[in-house]
Write a structure and sequence with these properties.
The chain is an all-beta fold. The chain contains one helix and 42 strands. The chain starts with a helix and ends with a strand.
């Protein structure tokens, strides 16, 4: 195209012929602005952790229209049917078949500030010598020009500068005569949008209506023709080539039958006879039970506090149930036992027995045992201490006769160890498969003096509620006792308030008696709430927990130190990093109609309100000045930011900030700075106090406001009240006083 409509629109809006090269703001962009105030909390004497935020004001950018279709290459457009673009690549295509498809490449350029700009496509064949059979359009990269791939429009993105979408034009001719010429150019139209949400009221300089690429709304012409010329056919008759002799057909072999294989028959072993009680002392603290029918034994060891391997000793008997004296032998297969498991076999006196090296059979002492007699033995199992999840250990025992040489045992049994294990911590997921995680560091925020309840994720009450989970990662069911140390909160003078206790509730809100849970099965979890009711009068905390309070953090957030203990196993787990944050209580009015006391902020007695207008007049302010505006590139937006001290005390270290880094603010990304000024007024609203200082982009405070055109990402103001010509901790904002900052910007 000859003249870029985007350039025209911006030259009108910005009164500069170079404006077309500047980045533009996409239509529908929301320019957002949120101010913040930081200060020393007068109730604690320390800086607030989180600055107070104002309400958010939004300006929606309106659209500027314009697009172009150009050759895909360096050729200039504005061609005709008889003079298409040549060069590399050429759009004057010679020697095409009489029936053929000819594809050429184009780009559709977005000259607007509209993201999702729809341009309809149609062919213009004005001036062609012959009309093509058809002209169709396809996305770039298409190789199969079938109806399913055809497009009739493209949707253009807006990237802040001219963005494009490539297309293919395909000219189809059928049965054309030699040397016939066929021409076509893509032509676009952008229909008017009815989306008043994405594209609100358009600027008066260019309504968002149909835009015809062929005229650019300014001149005629500006098409981009492709011309194809039909080749002259040359056809000759030639003798046939020799044929290749055929080859005999090959018949594939017929598959045979695969014979079946019959597996061996497995026979279950005999029942193991329960051992007699020999009176040998077992491990202290470990409960071992025996099945009188099978002779199997089960051990339930308790927990210990070390990481050394654990030991369980089983005591058993082998009885001679035959009619002749016999030598008793046993075997302990170790295949399949957990890594690190060690097996020892002892006689009744504790002497270690050694198996024979071939069959690995332990010969029990006492020589041939008379019929009806028995021989006691001990099996000592040493296994690694569990770290995260215990697994039961099955130790097989096989019994052999000295009179019957055989590799098959006459009887078998199993010695099973059920180790304990558990996990306790903040809830991740939910029971019965949820996992506790003691490494999490949640912080619950409370408001002293508020109601007490079990509501999760609220800062409006006085109850800190921590979802906790106990997971039984051991191998037998167990109950647990949950305990926590008392928590000490400070009052505003730094004195201790009565200790706050931790109460545990089930997930359904039932308090645990003595903190004792119901039995939890192996591999299952149970969820609980650890609840701390913070006493009225607690001072706001000033930072994360530290061992020794500092000047910068005199009231650190207290820790909730919790322990879960297995009532049988004695296993314990702790969670010691949950913290409670005590919020500042808001004392300012919540129903006042004075704009400098609103909007209500639940976290502070400092109120920050933001207002906006478009044009030459600053906000009054009135309630409607917080409403969303519509503005075109080049329009001026004026902001008024008003902060008021609603504490009944002076406030130190007060700084009012308007920054791209605050909340959702992006005003300095999509606009250029014009001006700023600030005033500080006492409670009467007319008497000024101090001298306003400005800080730009984190620099130093100065009494001079930034100049027009200054590149700004952050603007701060504070008031020098001690005439030191600097901003220090000695400067104050009196009770009920206010600071107003006015800023003007122009939409890019």
């Amino acid at each position: 195209m000859k003249v870029n409509s985007r350039s025209i629109a911006l030259m009108v809006a910005m009164a500069a012929c170079t404006a077309a090269a500047a980045p533009r703001t996409t239509a529908g962009t929301e320019i957002k602005n949120v101010a913040s105030a930081s200060f020393t909390d007068p109730s604690t004497g320390v800086a607030v952790v989180n600055p107070v935020l104002s309400n958010e004001v939004i300006t929606t950018v309106t659209p500027i229209t314009g697009f172009d279709i150009i050759y895909k290459g360096s050729q200039a457009d504005g061609t005709t049917a008889s003079t298409p673009a040549t060069g590399t690549p050429t759009y004057d295509i010679p020697n095409v078949a009489a029936t053929s498809n000819t594809a050429t490449n184009y780009s559709v350029v977005n000259n607007s500030n509209i993201n999702g700009y729809v341009v309809n496509l149609a062919a213009d064949t004005t001036g062609t010598e012959n009309a093509p059979t058809s002209v169709k359009y396809y996305p770039a990269g298409t190789t199969s020009f079938v109806p399913a791939n055809e497009i009739t429009s493209v949707t253009l993105a807006d990237t802040g500068t001219n963005s494009t979408k490539d297309i293919i034009q395909v000219i189809t001719i059928t049965g054309a005569a030699a040397t016939n010429k066929f021409s076509a150019s893509p032509k676009g139209t952008a229909p008017a949008s009815t989306d008043t949400t994405a594209y609100p009221t358009a600027p008066s300089s260019g309504a968002f209506t149909q835009y015809i690429e062929a005229t650019n709304n300014t001149t005629t012409g500006d098409l981009q023709f492709t011309r194809v010329t039909v080749a002259t056919a040359v056809v000759t008759l030639e003798p046939p080539a020799d044929t290749t002799p055929g080859t005999p057909a090959v018949t594939p072999p017929v598959s045979g039958t695969v014979p079946g294989v019959t597996g061996p028959t497995v026979t279950n072993p005999n029942t193991y006879t329960p051992p007699a009680n020999t009176g040998v002392t077992n491990n202290p603290g470990t409960t071992i039970t025996a099945d009188p029918t099978t002779g199997d034994q089960a051990a339930y060891p308790k927990s210990d506090t070390n990481t050394a391997s654990d030991i369980v000793t089983f005591v058993g008997d082998v009885k001679n149930g035959g009619l002749v004296a016999d030598v008793m032998k046993i075997k302990i297969p170790t295949a399949g036992l957990p890594t690190g498991t060690i097996i020892k076999v002892l006689d009744k006196d504790g002497n270690v027995l050694t198996p024979d090296p071939t069959a690995l059979l332990y010969t029990l002492p006492g020589g041939p045992v008379a019929p009806g007699g028995s021989v006691p033995f001990q099996v000592v199992v040493t296994y690694p201490d569990s770290d995260t999840s215990a697994t039961k250990i099955d130790v097989p025992v096989q019994v052999f006769s000295g009179n019957v040489p055989s590799t098959n045992p006459l009887d078998t049994g199993t010695l099973t160890i059920y180790p304990p294990d558990m996990q306790f911590g903040d809830t991740v997921g939910s029971a019965p498969t949820g996992m506790p995680n003691s490494a999490l560091t949640p912080t619950e925020t409370v408001s002293p003096g508020g109601a007490t309840n079990l509501t999760l994720n609220t800062t409006a009450d006085a109850s800190a509620v921590f979802p906790m989970s106990v997971r039984n990662t051991g191998t037998y069911a167990e109950t647990y006792t949950l305990t926590a140390t008392d928590i000490i909160f400070k009052d505003v003078n730094g004195n201790n308030l009565p200790a706050a206790t931790v109460t545990y509730y089930t997930a359904t809100g039932v308090a645990l008696t003595g903190g004792v849970t119901s039995p939890i099965d192996p591999g299952k979890s149970a969820d609980f709430y650890a609840v701390v009711n913070v006493p009225a009068g607690a001072v706001a905390t000033t930072g994360v927990n530290i061992a020794t309070p500092t000047t910068a953090n005199p009231f650190p957030q207290p820790l909730v130190l919790q322990t879960a203990t297995g009532n049988y196993s004695g296993d314990t787990a702790t969670d010691t990093n949950d913290e409670i944050k005590v919020a500042v209580v808001n004392t300012k009015p919540t129903t006042s109609t004075d704009p400098t006391t609103g909007p209500s902020n639940a976290n502070s007695g400092i109120a920050v309100a933001k207002y906006q207008t478009k044009g030459a007049t600053a906000p009054t302010p009135v309630a409607t000045d917080i409403n969303t505006l519509n503005a075109a590139p080049g329009d001026t937006i004026r902001y008024a930011i008003i902060a008021k001290n609603n504490f009944n005390s002076i406030v130190k270290n007060f700084v009012l900030t308007d920054s791209n880094a605050t909340g959702t603010t992006n005003v300095y990304t999509f606009s250029d700075f014009v001006s700023a000024s600030a005033t500080a007024l006492l409670a009467d609203g007319t008497t000024s106090f101090g001298t306003v200082f400005y800080k730009v982009n984190g620099g130093t405070f100065t009494a001079t406001a930034p100049a027009t055109g200054t590149v700004i990402t952050s603007l701060e103001v504070a008031v020098d009240t001690d005439a030191s010509s600097t901003i220090t901790a000695a400067d104050i904002v009196p009770a009920k006083a206010s600071i107003r900052l006015d800023i003007a910007v122009k939409v890019k």
